[in-house]
Amino acid sequence: MGVVIVGASFAGPAKNAEWITKQEFAFEVWDDDDKTLALHYGAVKNQSAPFPDRITKVLDADGTLILEYVDQIDVGTHPADVLDDCKKIFGEPAP
Which of 43, 25, 31, 30 is nearest to 79 (CA)? Predict the structure, then answer.
């Protein structure tokens, strides 16, 4: 599908690296310790927020927002839900 998955975290490079290894996370995690991404995409309301809201934004190749998930994300089912929605939009990946 040409989809790139990226996470973002306030935790900083060392803690992110530890978490990525422990969770066997298969995607990039960007450090957002200055909260620039979180502010831009609405995961926090201000710089003093201790934690971001769990949100997902799907952008097209031009950076245009085409899907967003901002309410009550269930971490157990959310990845599959997003994948299903991406398949509907972008089509099934080539074999």
Answer: 25
Q: Is 34 left (phi over 0), alpha (psi -120 to 50) or beta?
A: alpha
Spell out the domains of the chain, with CATH numbers in brackets: 6-90 (3.40.30.10)
What pTM did the predictor assign? 0.78
User: How open is the CA angle 46-51-53, to the nearest 5 degrees?
Assistant: 85
Q: Enumerate residues 6+ apart whose C-beta is below 8 A from 65.
A: 57, 58, 59
Q: What is the pLDDT of residues 15-59, one digit of tens each?
A: 989 988 998 888 889 999 899 999 999 999 999 999 899 999 999
Distances from the Cα of 67 to the Cα of 13, 45, 53, 55, 85, angstroms: 28, 20, 16, 11, 9
